[in-house]
Every structure is written in C-alpha cells, then in structure tokens.
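Dear colleague,

Following up on Tuesday's group meeting, I ran the structure prediction for the two-component complex that the binding team flagged. I've pasted the input sequences exactly as they went in, so you can double-check that nothing got truncated or mislabelled along the way. The structure tokens for the whole assembly follow below. Feel free to forward this to whoever is handling the docking comparison.

Inputs:
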Amino acid sequence: MTTQVERHSYDVVVVGAGGAGLRAAIEARSQGMRTAVICKSLFGKAHTVMAEGGIAASMGNVNENDNWQVHFRDTMRGGKFLNQWRMAELHAKEAPDRVWELETWGALFDRTKDGKISQRNFGGHEYPRLAHVGDRTGLELIRTLQQKIVSLQQEDKKEFGDYEARLKVFQECTVTRILTRAESGSAADSRVCGVFGYVRESGRFFVIEAPAVVLATGGIGKSFKVPSNSWEYTGDGHALALLAGAQLINMEFVQFHPTGMVWPPSVKGILVTESVRGDGGVLRNSDGKRFMFDYIPEVFKEKYAQDEAEADGWYTAPDTHRRPPELLPRDEVARAINAEVKAGHGSPHGGVFLDVSTRLPAEEIRRRLPSMHHQFKELADVDITAEPMEVGPTCHYVMGGVDVDPDTAAATGVPGLFAAGEVAGGMHGSNRLGGNSLSDLLVFGRRAGLYAATYAAELAGSRPQVAEEQIEGAAAEALRPFSAEYAGNTDTVDGRPENPYSLHQELQQTMNDLVGIIRRAGEMEEALHRLADLRVRSRTAVVEGHRQFNPGWHLAIDLRNMLLVSECVARAALERTESRGGHTRDDYPQMDRLWRKSNLVCELAEYRGVITGQDPAMGQIKLTRRDMLPIRADLLALFEKDELLKYLTDEELSA
Amino acid sequence: MSYRGRFKIWRGDAKGGALQEFVVEVNEGEVVLDIIHRLQATQAPDLAVRWNCKAGKCGSCSAEINGRPRLMCMTRMSVFDESETVTVTPMRTFPVVRDLVTDVSFNYTKAREIPSFVPPPQLGPGEYRMQQEDVGRSQEFRKCIECFLCQNVCHVVRDHEENKTAFAGPRFLMRIAELDMHPLDAAEETGLDRKSTAQDEHGLGYCNITKCCTEVCPEHIKITDNALIPLKERAADRKYDPLVWLGSMIRRRRTD
C-alpha cells in the first residue's frame, strides 16, 4: 500500500525559518526561484528572537577605526584560529551590507547622535561593533525578515493573484528526512531530490520535491540539561545532513554562555545578555572580588586591563585604556565562573554575581536593558537596578556543524544540499564571539539562498526524481513510536515501553554531567556507553494518543536527532586531546599548536541513511581527522608575527 | 517549598472537549508552563501546547489562565494560593486545534493585508539617518512579540466571528501606526495614505478604546494610547468618528 502523503514541488526548499532560513528564502525567491520555507514553529517564533545583544558589523559608526580587517582579526582570535578563515573573511566583509539592507526593509535600530545605526561593545570585539535594538535585537531581525517575506508575497499577489505563488511558508511542519536519489544506483553520487516530513497539526506526512535544500535549523542545545535554547534546538539539521551523507566538523566545540540565570530552578539557563557587561556590568564572587582579572589567559594578556582603575577608564577613554576582562571571549569567562564556583566562591544558588546596579543609573539600565530588567523582575523577583543578578554558564551555541564550501554554503559530498547559520560549521572555529551569530545568519543565509537558486536553475530539466521506496521508509521510521516495537522485545527493562520524556531527561543529564563545560576522557567514554544504551532503548519509546498535534510523538522523533548529534559531540571531544575555545579538557588543559589546523570530521558509520543501532558497542558515527587549508598569506599578514606564534606552528609560519 | 497543586486543563479538539482535573507537584519559582510540561512528562504525554523560548520572548504559549489571557511562561505559580485550583484554557477568539493549541491563522491573514514599509527611493542602503527620538515611537510597537493576546481579548472579534473579515485587530492596527510613524516610510509618495486605510480597510472605527489590548500586553506596549488613538485622531481629520471625540474628551478630563 502506498503511504498517504501530501505532495508539493518547489525549486528551493529552506528548512528552518530563523534568521538564516528567512534570509536564504528571500534570496532564492529574489533570484526567481519558487521557494518553500518549512518551520517547526509558527512563522516568526524561531530561536533567533531570543538573540539579545546585537549584530556585529564593522560599519565604524561609533569608532571610525573599525573595518573588516579588524573584525576578521577579532573573529579569528575568538575562535582560537581554528575558524574556516575564508568564511570569517566573507563574514567580516559582507556584514555591514547585510545590516544596512535590513534598514531598507524597515528595521529600526537604535541610533547614534548623528542619526546613524548605533553600535555597542561586546566581548572580544575591539571596537563598539554591534548594531542593536535595546536588548531585543533578534526579535527585530526576525520581524524585519518576516515582514520582508510578507512584502514579497504582496508583490506576488499583485502579479499572480496569489500570495503564495512564489514563496510559501509551511508553518509547524517538521522535516524528518532529506530525500536523495542516486542516478547510477551508487550511494556515492546521490543528489538531493526533496524532503519528507510531518504536519504538526494533523500528523499527516508531506513530501516536497526540490533539487536544492537549504538547512537552516539552528543548534543542538536541547541535548543538554541547562541550555539557553528553545525546544526546537534538537539538532535536526545536523542529523538530517548526516543521514543524507554529509559530514559535520568541529562538533566538540560547544559554547557555554557565561551568564545564564541560575535561580529559580525553572528558569535555570535562560540567557542574560552579554550587553550587561558590554554596557558596564561586572562579575564578582561571594567575597565581592572582581575576579576576572585573575583569569586573563596568556594569549590575551596585552589586550586586557590588569586592574579596576584601568578597566573602568576604558568605557570613557577606550584609546588610552585596555578593555575590562569581563569582556574576554565567552569561553574564557565561562571557565572563570566555573572555577570560582568550584573553589567555593559562588553565590547562594551556585553562580556568581553580575552587577550593573552600582555601575549605571537606574533609568539608564531600564533604557539599555529593558528585557533583562523585565525578565529578572518577573521571573526571579530581582530588581537589577538595585541589586546584582546571580548568573552561571548555560549551553548556548554549537560551533560545529555541516561541512560547507565557504563561498557557496554547499554541503560537502551531497549535491543540492546547502547549510547556513548555526547548523553550518567552520565560521566560528572553536568559539563564537557574541554578535557574530546574527551577522553569520544574514551573510551565509543570503549566500546559501543565492547558490541554492543557482544550482536549481542550472539543473533545470534534469532534476532527480523522488523514489517511492524512500518515502515508504521515511514514513515507517516516523510512525515507529506508534507501532510498539517493544511488544515482546526482551531488550527492554521489564518488557515495558520507554517514555520519550524520561529518555530525553536521561540524555540531557548524561551530556550535562559527562560532556559538559569541563571534560575528562573517562567521563566521555562513559557518556558514549550511555548514549549507546539510550539509543537502543529509544527504539522502544512508545507514544500515546494519535497523530494530531502530539508532543510525545514529536519528541520521540526528535530523540533520533539528539542521540546522533550527542554522539558526534562526545566522540569528537574524546578525540581532541587539548583545550581550545568551547572544548576544555581537564586532562589536557593546554592549547596545542599541533591540533590547530585539524578538524575532526563526523559522518555516519554505517551504510548511508540506515540506522540499526541495536548493538550498544557499535557507534553510529565514524570520526576522522582532516587538515585545514593553510590560511591565505594576505590574511595572515593582518596579524603580528608574535601573536601568530601563539597559535601556529613554526613550520606553518615559515611555509 | 513544594506542594500538590490542583489544575483544570481544557482538553479536546474542534469537535468539542472539557476541563480535565489534574493534581501535580508544584515547586518554588515555577511558572504555569513548567506545570504543563510536568503533566506531559508524567500524566498526559499527548497534551498539546505551543511553546518555544520559555522566556517571554517568542509569544507562543498564550492561553487563558483563570480566565485571564496570559503567557504561560511568564505566569508564576506564586501568584496563586496553594489551595486554589488553576484553570488553563485555550485562547477563546481562535478556533481550537487541540487542547491548548489554537488556529491563529487569522493573524497571519491580517498581517498580509497591511501594506509593507515603502523604502525612500532617494536613499541607498547605509544612507538612512534618523534620530533616536524619532525612531523611538515606532520602536515601542516593534517590541511586539506577536503573542496575539491583544487580538484574543479584543471584544470586537471575541465572540464576534462576523467582525473578523472587516477588522485587523489591535496588533495589526498598531502595525499601521508603526509604519505611519516610521521617519523614512515613503508610502505617501506612492499615493498610499496609511491613516485612511486604517479606517477604510482595516476596521479602525470598530475600536472603541476600552484598552483591553493594552492591559493584556506582556510587553507593556501602550497599544491604545500610543498607537490606536493617535491613528484615530489623524484619521479623523478626514472622517468624522464620534469615538475619537469621546476618546479625546476622556483624555482631556484625565489631565485636569
């Protein structure tokens, strides 16, 4: 019997409707392609709305010394030189154009006195660089892109009598498989031919045939216990790419944002924007000591203030003072907070104090940080204009992602597949700077849309067709949680089915405890063992009820993705025997120049597309080490030789 | 610290449903959405609810809590007495999909009917110059997280399905005001008068400024005072509207 599926056909399908997805869709449609956007939530609710601080772009509106070269340098330093340097270059060069373009679509950024877009300080950025709207910049970005899409639809309505003639948003739909077709029958030359997924509201399946698919699904935070991320962050795009035969790189690098809320427990992890520190907030331990001065690493010694007087002078006279150490890159600050708490200098609820109340007038705090003021008042009964906040690290961002061509965003090895934003890897190296995410979404969202459109157009009449058996397979996989594989299965404890919610909690606890902010070999080996066990048990996860808007079912499906991605993180983290950026090894605490040029590449271990997962000893992921291309000479020349020596080996430098 | 709380949650679909009673653990500092999640994990795995950020930023988890339209993620359990039964129902103005999830497509339809920002033709990207005090007015409206609580509570469409075609609702009338107050919007140069379209095409006249929308706004946007009344006042230059007159009288009295 043929599975009942709704069928559509488009030129370009964009999976994900955050900043990268919407920007890609706008571009693909503007190139004349019929474009579909698929979003897991309602249109305009994507995780991007939670971005607070701003968009990094070297417009030089506040400090005219800023330019793309300075931004490039900061980005490479933040990522500890592991960045895909061509991406970092394109990003730094194109970010200003992407921000200005938003203004022509109706965005309203905060202004400087002379009427330009205002820019604020942020960790790791040499000059005030972040275009912002108070502390709700992500919302402004999403709304602007959403409204641009509506305006394109209005144009189409005028021309074709139909809003959705060339650009349609499929809301509350989840893609569970990228469909591929091998013309010759060999998996090695298979191309993208569409996507398979389900509609949340009805539970019905759909297939969209399309030669080009852009992944813009964001990150993986929901595999961890204390994240700043929304429920959608289940690593869907990462897993979809693996299952389609693509590769992931840098998965060991997970950013723990230094300042998440720690109290009350139900809000633990919710983000406290870095703008608090950018605008003058300081970190103190339980003794009232501003401890960050003790944690300035060797590579950054010359760039950061050594005492409070110098640090405080920087806010008004940045040319004659060095930066306060609270504005070190996020990995450094998160590790410092972790160390203070561990040494017994923590706040009552296991964090440290972040204080802006003694640094700025109350009115100024309310104006610059309105949503932080609101968030603490409403959720924690804390008035940040009068008392300090308690904060601690929260899982925030994954630097790792789909291995892509830096110029075209095309996924390596799978023609027709593109990736942009958090789901793509490389751009941020081992650690992302604040503000570089929103600009990344726009720069590479646009590029992915552009090159997906070009690819689809060039393919013209020779588009690969979707194979019926692939649809059958995808449908069977999605329905498995209803079909009780547990029945008579002797593997399950007591022969009882597993609850997907409990499995998810166990997964989060495992990643939190064993592959968290500080890592050790033995713990990560244990994590891999537990992940294998969870994988087997997840096969017997059973859901109640029917297919209509059933969150238990959706979670059971998402578990596949979270388990795949978690294994990538754990395997890569175990392999990398050094500490760098968002990867800190207790047993290898130093950064090792020999590791600098190496990427760890994850791909599916078994025959592509098939997960058996029955044998706990066998992983699903194959890991290989691959050297990066040497950094182009003119880009290297932007740095002093002394600084390069801290990161690059002598051979690399003399080459 | 922890107690067993009593809840009534509406469960059902388009065909009908009823309140279902639950007793569930409540811990210090929790919000209503935490309780809904605990119910999913322990008692009702298929309980349908829409949510995303759980931080009051995305506007997904709108519902009616003890009859009041609220975000579930921003409603702390500590505002209720421990012995009180907390009732959670879906937003009433929109058709139920399942349990606490409603079909909010009305709002997306209305969004498309509002003419978009018109960029000034003489300015290229990077050439826009605006003063903070001039963008501030529209920025207040752009704080909107599209939770649609204002649309839900507005009596013009709450229990009045027949008005939905002609009335955009507070959120989208506010969108018109936002564009109208944008310092560089060039709509007028293209012959588009936003103020009169608000009145003629989007049902501004239906609004009789009861301020229910302002009261429920989780972003504390002064929808009525700062968006709708100014829009009405300017629209009134072209068209007589007794409510504008009434509104201005009421406001005048307050400043006495």
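Chain A touches chain B through 73 residues (CB under 8 Å).

Cheers,
M.
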